[in-house]
Amino acid sequence: MDRTGAFRSSSFRLFVAVLLIAGGSVAHGRDSRWHSAWTVSHGARQVPAGVTLSGSSFRMIVRPTISGEEIRVKLENTMGQTPVTFSAAYIGVLDSGAALVPRSNRQLFFAGSSSVTIAPGPGLTNGPDTGVYSDPVHFKVKAFQRLAVSLEVASASDVSAHALGLVTNYVATPGGHAASTSGDGFVAIPDNGGNFPFYWVASVDVEAPEATGTIVAFGDSITDGRCSTRDAAGVDHPDLYLRWVDVLAQRVAALPRNQVKSVVDEGIAGNRIRGGGSPAALDRLDRDVLGRAGISHVLFFEGTNDITGGALAAQVIADTKTIIDRVHAAGIPIFGVTIMARGRPAPLTGWTGSMESQRLQVNHWMHTPDANFDGLIEFGALTQGPIVVGSDGVPGESIWTAPGGTVPSLTDSWNCGDYTHPNTPGYNAMGNSIDLGFFHNPAAFREDDD
Fold it and tell me: pTM for this structure?
């Protein structure tokens, strides 16, 4: 199989063989029965205007990507600067709006207690994870069925949040509504400029003995889905699940039963490998990726924000190599994703010809043995377009013409309008371009796949 977008099948077979000889498993995590079925990364501290935190009920809507018979929930205060106390927590099946299916709401406990206090987390540093898991509870989970995690907040002065949630979540003030399946009293939390954030909930893990792994997409706003639900009028709509990660999850779910894996999204808008305004990839790798239950594959898609922040290719490459080495040290394969162009026709600013040069250097390196990825996902090639003049007068490639097009435009391209993010068709093409052979289990490999 060609190296471009291809799987390093022989080296990966050797990797799998070593695991099997040692009596290991391709899936990793705290317990091979458990798989993270839905996740978000916490990257922002919020004090939402007009929302009363203490004494309110919150209802966060999650969507697991695999089925199972038991469930546990991880709550985090990663970005909070003060403790948060929950007096009760529940999980139920969403019906419509904030209402739940009658008799579906189950109470969650934390080390046997209905309440839990979570200390402030590490914020932008790589300090200890202060998050807590609920005790496992018997709960029948159906893949892609929406569930609601309902929280009674006894005390909080800020929120540890995932900013770009693209899901309608709810609050009821005064509280006392978490145990109820009724949607009465709940209103949508502020969408924060079309972002639709999540508060406190970080992971929903499912006990799924038949699942064979957890695929973790680790990236920035293009992984987080910026513009994935934006319409022609520039309005972002919630509850549509149109990220490239969502498309991939549906495809993986359709694989034969012995190949099904969960697919989770650990993207943070604006994220960088090093530095930046959210926990950097180097600092959050353990918490947001290696710590996810049942992890079997990592898809790494970062670097563009480092370049716009002034990083040179050499720094991006060195930091990416550190990520690769740490993931491999945990016995997990990691697949690189080539950086997409952000060429912006003059007079727009924000991406220059010199930045494009750094991108091309990084992408070239990703195709060399020195990169040591287990395979490549070619989003850079998929979205390549014509050469245009950058904002600094230097020619640079523009992503924003779909195959067959001639000029960047909103009508015939994959541009959502900001010359940085794809639109819905672009995300769909990305999710459908990924070779599912990357995720086969050992028994599925055949030499004639090469």
Answer: 0.90
